[in-house]
Amino acid sequence: RSYGTPDYYVQKLFSTNRGTTVLPNRIDGQTDGLFLCSSRDAGSGDVIFKVINRQNAARSIHIKLDGIAPVSGTGEQLLLRADNPNAENTLDNPTAVAPVQSDLNGLATEFDHEFPAMSLSVIRVHAPKM
Question: Shortest CA distance to 77 belongs to which of 90, 93, 63?
Answer without folding.
Answer: 63
